Amino acid sequence: MSIEVKFNRLDKTYNPGDRVSGVLVATCEEATKHAGITLNVTGFVTLILSARNMGLYEAFSSNMKPLQLVNYTIPIAPAGKLPAGTSELPFEFILKPVTGQQLHDTYHGVYVNVRYHLTVDMAQGMFGGPPVQIKREFYVQLKREDEIDGLLKTAKSLAFTLTPASLQNVRETARKKSPRIFIYWSY
User: Fold this and answer.
1) Quick check: is 149 in a domain?
2) Residue 36 and residue 54: Cα distance in Å, rounded?
3) Are 23 and 9 in contact (CB under 8 A)?
């Protein structure tokens, strides 16, 4: 048995308040009993610790748990039987944060991750076999048209020059090896 998640958007990118929909495609060689199929939607901001940043974040990390942005469960199908062959089970939900939080752009960084997942759980009952769980990531992108328009309206011209001599925090040996270029840009 296999389960595949197909989102209604190929890029799997949504804005807060968007209707996220798609289908779960279950393929079974023979009729399969199940104890229910649920969809769990979660979103977290997590802090990533490494040896390099341990001293910097050590004080924060002892009390820092992942910050939950999204958390809800949607029943897809009650207990029953999936027929042999392919079955499509539609799903749909409105992308909204938990109370007191706001959604953030999906971000996979060195020290911080903002991730959103859709997890399908299918319990196969006591004698039906192990539960089936499929986890798929989707992406959140905040609308920024107003911010961009505001920045463009208040933008001031900027001129700069880039030469090997103007580079900072570069060793002299590296500066000597850098190509002899001159870039001037004015906006």
Assistant:
1) no
2) 43
3) no
Q: How far apart are CA 140 and CA 117, in angstroms?
A: 10
160 with 97, same domain? Answer: no
pLDDT in tens, 45-84: 998 766 565 555 554 555 568 899 999 999 999 988 889 9
Residues 6+ apart with CB under 8 A from 141: 13, 14, 15, 105, 106
Q: Which domain holds residue 102?
A: 2-143
Q: How confident is the model at residue 181 (pLDDT cuts 50, 70, 90)?
A: confident
pLDDT tens digits, one per residue of 103-134: 999 999 887 899 999 999 998 766 667 788 99
d(C-alpha 91, C-alpha 178), whole Å? 56
